[in-house]
Specification:
By secondary structure, the chain is of the alpha+beta class. The chain is built from 25 helices and 7 strands. It has a 5-stranded antiparallel β-sheet with strand order 6-5-4-3-7, with no helix packed on it. It has a two-stranded antiparallel ribbon with strand order 1-2. Helix 3 (about 35-45) crosses helix 5.
Amino acid sequence: NDPRAKTAALISLARLNHKPAIPHILPLAADMDPVIAHTAVKSLVALRAIKSSLSAITQTTALSRAAHRVLRELHDPQTVSGLIALIARTSDPVVRKPMLTTLIRLYHREKYWTGGWWGTRPDTTGPYYTREKWDQSDKIESNLRFIMANTDSQSLQHILRQLQRHRVNLPGTTDLLLATAAKNPSFRNTAAEILAQQRNIPDKAVPLLESIAISSRTPSQKRQAAFAALRRVKGKKGTDAAHRVALALVKSAVSSFEARLALLSYLTDRGHARSIDRFIKLCNSTNTTERELAYAVLMAIANNKRNRQASTRAAAEITTAWKSDSNRTSLLRAAGHVGARAYADKVRTGLKSASPATSSAAEYAAQYLGIPTGKSKGKLIATLKYEKVLAEVLKIKGDPRLGARLFVKQTCSNCHTTKPSELLKGPYLGGIAARYSRSELTESILKPNAIVAQGFTSYYFTMNDNTQHVGFVVSEAGDQINIRTITGQPVSLKKSGIKKRGKLPTSIMPPGLAHTLTTSELASLLAFLESLKSK
């Protein structure tokens, strides 16, 4: 009954390659003690317990789940053949689905480690760090194709989910995914989620993604995930569809956190600089929503000093637009959409306007630029000493709902995620209050260089063509590094194209992001962070 003795015995039996012990070890793989269960699984893998594990997966018990864990690590022709045979004669979907999942898991195996892959931010999407096909991959593929062509709708949907989850890209599955979504409306949202995780999204997926992104019946988070996927579709079809969704968001006066974040991400996309002529042309549109969107994009381009030519053109266009009173409302709302602090004086002037439309637009912009409207009280943090700010925010409870809006307005959302379902950018903030006190969070916001979160040190990369990138490493795989820049933009770098990389001494998070807030607003931002759950 001593768990330490059991663990030691399991390890010893595996090292001795004592196969007669397999029937006695297998039940321990489902032990309530996670250490014993894990050790038993590893011992069974070492003992190549294929036959016993295959026999155990024909039922729905804790033992069958443990046996699947063993089989998923046994890349052996006998494992593959046994699974295919069991799937063919199993009709119970509850038993059959885990078998299909295990077969899909075995399509890849871990590539042999050469000693040069690991980094501080490894790619943890799994199930393999750097995957590769093996001699049974083609057999698995041919059988999966046969199963998909001859199975029921629910099993097909399960297979499609698992193929994406395990990053198995079989030619033709996207067509099958879209056809399944067309036949089964309940599968549409899932299909969009699967598409969103693909590296390359074909333009044939545009109608599905656009319909979900603009549907008021779809939950906000799923709508914005579809919008994000739509923006990654290369070519005119995807670009036009993303533009239509953005227009719908602008017109609907976005209020949800997810929608505001999605719109901001679209408007500040640095790729728009390559299409600047399109947005300049839209500034002359008779549609006020189109003008508002175009102005917002141009303001974001004007703020991007790295592309000086596009920045200068965009700034000139905005300057010209301000000269016409008919553009004022659209320009003010556009400044609010992208948090364009360069036009803060214009917003302050608009707040004093006798025109209800102008003053209303100015109030909208003011709330996202941290400009007092007469409704908020308190001095700006930029005018106070750090010790004074800290003392104040420790006394003020704060409003987490206001904090959620400030989280987007202050561009925190560009580099931080708050939900486990979101693609990791910078430091994950779910459950942050369980790890840091309010005073520590305040220091991290106001003094970002004081302590840099582990794994989020800033790096510079010089490429073979002498272009440079600066950011923190989001994930690092065998052949690719994904970084996020100071503007929150994701960039993928091929390792073979990197000439030099180095570490920067300071945080990528710039100081002063909270300077336009009052202590009461900072307390609300902290209250929002404290409300975030870890899961």
